[in-house]
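To the structural biology subgroup,

Please find below the input and predicted structure for Replication factor A C-terminal domain-containing protein, which we are adding to the shared reference set this quarter. The sequence is reproduced verbatim from the submission form. If anyone notices a discrepancy with their own records, reply to this email rather than editing the shared folder directly, so we keep one authoritative version.
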Amino acid sequence: MVFSVELLDREGGEIRASLFNEAAEQHYDLMQCGRCFTLCNGSVRPAQKKYSVLKHGYELVFDGRCQIHMVDDDADIGAVRLAVQKIASVTQMAVPSSVDICGVIVSGSTLKSFRPKKEKL
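Predicted structure (tokenized):
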């Protein structure tokens, strides 16, 4: 199991965080867009740019040892900065590419497990 979030701090810094296995199962329902959290016991690694649209050179990884708590909103943390594109413009972009889209979710899937192609059995 895995899911990722993009975090923004009060200085405007943005970083991607991925939660794996136990951490994903424990915290998936808690992590809500627009809410503030404290995240403890994560690891730092170089960003995997094929999975992240952020410019930060590093990302955070959390496993079952992590502690994540929702805290009161911090008015000093600004809004996420997006360069929103029209969905129709995606076909004209170079591949691979990063894009910000604003749209209405019309369907979705549940949290699923996956096995990376390079994982040894």
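Summary notes: The beta strands are 2-8, 14-20, 36-40, 43-46, 58-62, 67-71, 84-85, 100-101. Residues 2-78 form a domain with the OB fold (Dihydrolipoamide Acetyltransferase, E2P) fold (CATH 2.40.50.140).

Regards,
Lab coordination
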